[in-house]
Each structure stands twice: as C-alpha cells, then as structure tokens.
Amino acid sequence: MPFRAPVSEYTFLFENVVDYSVLTTTEKFQDATSDMVDAILTEAGRLCEDVMYPVQRNGDIDPARLENGVVRTSKGFAEAYRAIADGGWVSTSASPEYGGMGLPLTVTTAVNEMMAAACLSLQLNPLMTQGQIEALEHHASDEIKSLYLPKLISGEWCGTMNLTEPAAGSDVGALRSKAEPNGDGSYAITGQKIYISWGDNDFSGNVCHLVLARLPDGVPGTKGISLFIVPKYIPDENGNPGVANTLNVVSLEHKMGLHGSPTAVMQYDGARGWLVGEPHDGMRAMFTMMNNARLGVGGQGIGAAEGALQHALAYAEGRKQGRSPIENGTGTIIDHADVRRMLMTMKADVFAARAIALSNAVAIDMSNATGSSEWSARAAFLTPITKAFGTDTGIEVSSMGVQVHGGMGYVEETGAAQYLRDVRVTAIYEGTNGIQAMDLVGRKLMDGGEAANALLDEMQAKIEAARSQLSDLAEPVWQAIESLREGTEWMLEQSNLNDRFAGAVPFLRAFARVLGGYFHLRASLAEGGNGPKTKLARFYIMSLLPEHQGLLAQARQGAAALYELSSDELLAG
What we know:
Elements: H1 7-16, H2 34-52, H3 56-61, E1 65-67, E2 70-72, H4 77-86, H5 105-139, H6 142-154, E3 157-162, E4 178-181, E5 187-197, E6 206-214, E7 225-231, E8 233-235, E9 241-244, E10 247-252, E11 263-276, H7 282-318, H8 337-370, H9 373-405, H10 416-423, H11 433-441, H12 450-463, H13 466-469, H14 471-493, H15 497-502, H16 504-526, H17 532-544, H18 547-555, H19 567-571
Parallel strand pairs: 3-6
Antiparallel strand pairs: 1-2, 4-5, 5-11, 6-7, 7-11, 8-9, 10-11
Helix pairs in contact: 1-2, 2-5, 5-6, 5-7, 5-8, 7-8, 7-9, 7-10, 8-9, 8-16, 8-17, 9-10, 9-11, 9-12, 9-16, 11-16, 12-14, 14-16, 14-18, 16-17, 16-18
C-alpha cells in the first residue's frame, strides 16, 4: 500500500487550531508565511512518500550490522539519507548564518513527524543531528560552530548524543566517563556509552558525538559533568575529516524494533574532544538538546501512529470477513462496529496528539522569538505531555493496527507489527514516560500551578462562545477543564512529593485527554460545527474524553496503597 503524507492535516491545524499565525507577527518568523509553509510541507511530503517510505521495510528485514568494525546500513538507506540531506531537511530550523533555513520549529516538527511516519528508523538519524546543531548553536565556541555547524547543517556530517552508561541510565549523574586535559585545548575522553542511536553509519563523511564526561575537578553528581564534541575523524587544518579518533563501535544492540537504526555501544579510549560550553555545565548544554528532542520523540510516536493508521485503514477497506448488520456497507471489515471503533479511536487520538505537539512547538518558537517568560513556561509545561502522550499514542494506535489486521497482524509479512515494534522504545528513550510525568507534577508545578492555570484559563476563554453555539460538544470540554483544574489543585496541595509521583502518570494522561478534547472542539468550531472534523470531535468528546474522570480519581489516591504489599508479598505466588 502507498503512504500518503498528511500535509492537509498540518495545514488545517496551523490555520485553525494551534495558532500558527502568531509566529508571523514576530520579527524572527515574519517571513514564514502560510504559502511558504504549504510549499515546504508539500515538498517534504513528496520526499516521505517517494523516497523514505519505500525503504521502510528494508530497515526491518535488512537490519544495520557491524562488519569488521564497520557499520553497514540497510539497503536503500544511504540513498534516502542523501535525498534528505540534499533537500535541506536536516536543517529546516537551523541558523541561516551557517546554512540552515531558519524556519520555525513548528514547521520542522511537522516535517519530522511525516518522516517518522514514512520510515522511523531513518528519521531518527536527522533528528539526532538536529539536536546536536541546536546544542552547538547555543553553547559552543565560535570556532567550534564555524567548524562543525556547516557540515552538520548540510547533512555532510551526522551527530549523536552520548549520555547513558552501563551504570548510569536515568541517573546521569552516576556516569564514570572522564576527560583529561591534553594541554592544547583538547581533552582525552575515556569511557563507554551505551544505547547510542546512529552511533555510526556508512554514508556520512563524519559522525560527531556529543559526550558527557567528568573533568578531574568535577564534583560527583550532575553538577560535575561537562560536555564535549568528539568526532569520529579529527578535522584537519582545512576542516575536512582527517585521522581516525580513538573511538569505536563495540557492538550493535539486537532490538525489538528499529532494526534499521544502529544502536551502538561506543568505546572512547583517550579520544580527542573539545569542550562545549563551560566546564561542569554539561547538563545544561545537553538539556538544550534534550528538551526539544523530547518534542521530537513525541512526534516520532505520532508519526508511527499515522503510519499504522493508514496501514490498518487500507487493510480494513479490502478485507472481506463476516457480515455486518449495517445497510449499504462495503462488505469489508470496516463495516464492523468494533473495527470502526478501533479506527475512530486511532484517528481521533492521532489528531489530539498532533495538535498537542504542534501547540508545544508554537510555544517554543514564541519563546525563542520574543524571550517571553510566559511562552517559555507554556513550552516547558507542554513538553512532558507531548512526549508521553505522543509516544503512548504511537504504541496504542500501532497495537490497535495489529488488532485490526486480526491474525494477519501477527504475521510479519503484512508490516503491521513493525510499527508497534519500532515505536515501543519511544516511551523509554529521551526520558521514560514515567519520568516525564514526574517532571510534570514536580518541576513543572514548582511555579504554584501558574503555567497550568494560565493554559486552562486560555482554553476556557477560547471556547466560551461555543457553550451556546455548540453546547453538546463544548459543555463536556468546559466541565473537563474544570475537573482538571481541581486535579491540579490537589497535586499542588500535596507536601509529600511521592504522593504526587504515585498519580503522575494518570494525571499527565488526564491533562492530555482534556487538551485533546479542547483541540478537537476548536477543529469543529473552525468548520462551523458541521463536517468530518466535527464528526471526529463528537466521537472523541463523547467516547474518549470521559476517561479523564477515572484518570483524575486514580491520580488522587496518593502513594500509600502502592507500598502496602511488601517486596516479598509482591513476589509471592
């Protein structure tokens, strides 16, 4: 089946739901008009349909492999990557000073999501490079910027991020990698890093690693960590790849999915690296990359969901099985109520997750363009919701896609299971979804709920008129916002942080559910309360939005019940 890039969906959301037009009122993004964005999305859509989607299955059945220390990538990936790089799709939001397009992150988010829907394994490569570009733009010296950014932005070189170690996963502060000064401005980096996405490839001129390590005077914990750029090949006096650095790929992980994306164990043996940012300030520099990477990973989940939805729809429209009681049906399984329930749920949640992610991206862009603390707080608050709900949606929609296929979904040749296997890790990397939820109820509520309540106030203000115009849809959303406000207040009242953490995941999910209802309602209002978006909104608001009530009840239970069973009792038969 062919893949169709959902360009029209982004256009609709930009124009009617996520307030993209506010970006063009800023000096930074005044030229990023709707006509320009439409043209860019259309061209990116063609790349996804004609170049990336055709290599999707190759990544699964012809995995990346390590041969005599050299990473060999899946068939067709080198050519597809070159098309990505040559089209400028690595650098849509990068600074024009070094060759980037300088477009809003909102546009890049849409492009990246389409690419993830077409081929998630390959899309992960430019996503990593984009994060490195951003970190260097904000924290590197002018010398490093001049040397590395043009090559990364052009796609000639690729970038990675190296945080995790065998004994330092989510607890990054426990890392043991060390950096010793060489006396010439460079450092000798020694240590091992694991789970390095696209740690190497056979199609780029260089691979540049951002590596967290500790200087000799670095204190224990995260406050003693510094960030270094460590290239595979050390640039010569002309800035071209020179001698090989003393680093290597030890092995590639054998994974559940994302087989086309080589996940490496990296060994650094006194490899030459250069400090990025200030000494002992590596975590701040890395978080510049990680926060937007979390938006990107949320988009990966949404992209996988889009691919799985299209795959399931095509199958359901062609598969004849059983008889349905509806009149004038198609005679295929798409007539069956339960299959239709799954497809409607898939489509409604993809829309909700996509709207949340794009709204998050608009907030990030407005923060960057205006320096507004309010926009910055909005962006920070939405980021864990985007990451967690986007990836959960990817997993759930992909799982339903397998179910729609029935037995054939469990047969690899249909390709339905690949979406589920590929997307499953997105709920784990870039900070597990549990950590995202803890961040939401912890750090993101440290302002006393100011950012959360500002968002809730804005939602109610924008749908106030709809309570009379479209009351059957608007009233449930209004009441859900009120319930969410009460749930937020309960979180703020808890002095025991573990009581917040115990309900963090359902609270985040409830927030996403209500945001989804709000964005569906805005879509319905945009088409006058009558049309396909209204039909989808009615399904979401009546069938999915009510979940927020149970989620908020669960969020308020506190931690006590979680610890009533001892470890021995948990393990007992």
